[in-house]
């Protein structure tokens, strides 16, 4: 499979993930806020996180949707997935005394191990997308010194 097609598939998978994740939080916001409040995080952070998490997930969607910001979208997705994967990994390692998972939808019935595997897979996909764009653009900067990520996606369409 060509790099451009791989990049396009990875970006579409991540867009689906982030749209689903953000909308599942926003559609039942009170449930999300309640579940978030039960997490082992400082109470002062809850009002910030209840809006920041779905907002950043939607920001990742926007960045992944436009060729010029695709590399940033992959990096943001990678950072989000690293954070979520570490959180789940700590839960699996029993670092927290009590951790109710606030996952909904497809991961609602999943255990910690399944959740960890899912997160690791998407973390790898996000990094792979970023790496493929970076690798494809090495030595191909235009006169401004910027790398033309948009040309990669246009070739895939």
Molecular structure report:
There is one protein chain. The protein is mostly helical and 157 residues long. The protein has helices spanning 3-27, 29-37, 46-65, 70-92, 112-137, 149-156. The chain is globular and about 45 Å long.
| Helical run tally | 6
* Percent range of helical residues: over 70%
Outline the biggest β-sheet: none
3D shape: globular
Radius of gyration: 17 Å
Element order: H for helix, E for strand: HHHHHH
pLDDT averaged residue by residue: 85
pLDDT under 50 segments (min length 5)?
none
The computed structural class is: mainly alpha
| Percent of sequence in beta strands | under 5%
Termini separation (Å)? 14 Å
Total strand segments: 0
Structural topology:
Layout: H1 3-27, H2 29-37, H3 46-65, H4 70-92, H5 112-137, H6 149-156
Helix pairs in contact: 1-2, 1-3, 1-5, 1-6, 2-3, 3-4, 4-5
Q: Could you write a compact summary of the structure shown?
A:
The protein is mainly α and 157 residues long.
Looking at this protein, list some descriptive labels.
single chain; mainly alpha; 0% strand
């Amino acid at each position: 499979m060509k790099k451009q097609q791989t990049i396009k598939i990875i970006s579409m998978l991540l867009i689906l993930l982030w749209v689903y994740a953000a909308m599942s939080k926003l559609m039942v916001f009170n449930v999300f806020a309640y579940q978030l409040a039960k997490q082992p995080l400082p109470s002062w952070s809850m009002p910030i996180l209840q809006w920041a998490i779905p907002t950043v997930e939607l920001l990742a969607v926007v960045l992944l949707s436009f060729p010029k910001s695709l590399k940033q979208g992959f990096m943001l997705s990678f950072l989000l997935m690293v954070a979520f994967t570490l959180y789940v990994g700590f839960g699996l390692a029993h670092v927290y005394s009590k951790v109710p998972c606030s996952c909904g939808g497809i991961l609602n019935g999943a255990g910690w191990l399944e959740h960890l595997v899912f997160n690791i897979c998407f973390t790898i996909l996000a990094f792979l997308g970023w790496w493929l764009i970076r690798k494809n653009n090495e030595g191909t900067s235009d006169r401004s010194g910027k790398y033309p990520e948009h040309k990669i996606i246009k070739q895939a369409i």
